[in-house]
Amino acid sequence: MSYSIILGKQDFLESLRGKTASFLLAGSVTKTCEIPNLSQAGIPGKLHLTPVLDAEFVMVKQVRSLENIATTPKGVPTPALITRAVHELKGFKEIELLNLGLETLPKIEHFTVHEFGLTPSEDITKGANIEALSLFEKGLAFAQEYVPKSDYTILAESVPAGTTTAAATAKVLGYKSENYFSSSYKNSPNELKKEVIEKSLSNTNESMDIFEKLGFVSDNMIIFSAGFILGLQATPHKLILAGGTQMASVLLVVNSVLKTMGGELDSSKISLCTTKWIAEDKNSNIKAILEQLDFKINLYASDFDFSLSSHLALKLYDEGEAKEGVGCGAALCYASINGITKEQITQKTESFLNSN
Amino acid sequence: MSYSIILGKQDFLESLRGKTASFLLAGSVTKTCEIPNLSQAGIPGKLHLTPVLDAEFVMVKQVRSLENIATTPKGVPTPALITRAVHELKGFKEIELLNLGLETLPKIEHFTVHEFGLTPSEDITKGANIEALSLFEKGLAFAQEYVPKSDYTILAESVPAGTTTAAATAKVLGYKSENYFSSSYKNSPNELKKEVIEKSLSNTNESMDIFEKLGFVSDNMIIFSAGFILGLQATPHKLILAGGTQMASVLLVVNSVLKTMGGELDSSKISLCTTKWIAEDKNSNIKAILEQLDFKINLYASDFDFSLSSHLALKLYDEGEAKEGVGCGAALCYASINGITKEQITQKTESFLNSN
User: What's this model's pTM, rounded to 2 decimal places?
Assistant: First the structure.
């Protein structure tokens, strides 16, 4: 198992070989997920539970806030299974949850949950109603107080309907976004997404500053994470953004903040790690999103797929249903620089499904 | 896969089981390598590139300063492949390069390169022209400032023609050296080596002190490393010398310095780890070199060989061509105390050759 280099060079990731990692899971709910058929990241009507269940499964291999593992109507299991498989094969030194607006807390003990006094953001068609500047500053402050317990940090997310808010974020900041953002569906509900984004953007106008705009169209994870990235710049600590086009959107926000407020980013301290399913997705283009940045960024994609599996639910990943989330792409890259094999991850992931 | 104990007891190495290791690669050029047919550690006429290419390959699995992996005329691939295989299977926590006089720097980012203001040393037949005392003190100072990022440190080397300077070093210090030092060739060019060493020693005389003598006949790696070993004595940090007869020569220098300048060595903090190919080499005798020391030293040899491989280029190792270098013996010992199997290393090493 290895990884491919989509942008930049292998040196960043190679320098982390053999080192320990902290895994931060940013869990957040945007009520945009309540729009029917927009996202398949969870159980219809209960998508707000997805980040809670993902956190529980990655941390303790149990879904405590619901009877069954979150599966989509077609039965695509959450990528939390992959992240958990990696964690079992080569444990992250630390897993911590950032509560960026969950409806309920995961039922876990002994794991750190960072609280920021946040509630779920609203449906962006009605205006997300986020105090974006204050939230951004919370991300900054958290980074400045962050005491790494390992050699580097992986920042992952679980935000149902997050690709829609990510695309709206890119668009409101003036970046090209059409056909660039992915979907949890193989057949992305493009018309619906477009409608949601346009309706969302109609609440904003050009006289608004960045944070006013983001407060209407974005989500808590994106805004907080942009602050976290910039706050971490004051330290030498290395950060892997774990995700697909949502994390790319975080970087667009960073870029816009830097352009507006001044300042520079030493992007050699950060990289984005994603899955093969995102890297090869014909309906989105993470590379093109990142090429709009004014700074260079290393983009890696794991070469893992489920070609060794005969499990139909897992094979759906290779067919384009579900592609990324819960940091599974970065977890797979982490596995590959720690000597874990494709066979091991396939078997471990399968074992979770067979035991149900 | 395991290791054998040539001198001492297994306790030193066993105490490191499960611990993390930093890998320091001392890269150096002695222009002695320009003497035709003296060494086969690299591409004829370009042996000065070998340490640079070795560093690149171990760090980022790419040869950037040349098109192809350094192979000898007979096609023996560099032992850097073995070290890299181990690093992929069980990563060293840190890989750092000590620039002990390279002609060009490796093209790498994100990896620490320690600079000491050194240039390649000269051909020893003309006098190496090394400011040996100052260089020794640089090694001492580096050790005193060294902040270990892991539980123990492996000090490896890549110095083409280094066994010749190692033998000259032993001889000028009055140790028995004939037939004790190995060669990168199966059929060592003994007459040529002897000639080079004698010519080199003819530049020295008995009225010279240790460092004056070393300045004529030795190389930067040997002198610096002797200082490093002694400097590290002030700390409880454990050190593995990774190599064959060149590292043995470093210990002879340490021994002579202690005898001349006084002082004691707590050799329970250091050991030497090498390959089976060196331990069983009929044309050299690392054990006999180390038995001349006034202190005891643990000497281990990995039991790895390429008997599981059908790759002809790798089989050459088992036939006596190339035997050690780039810390491969210590890397193999490290692998064996970390549960890595002979099959895994064989397959991983083969995969590098097959992908070229």
Answer: 0.91
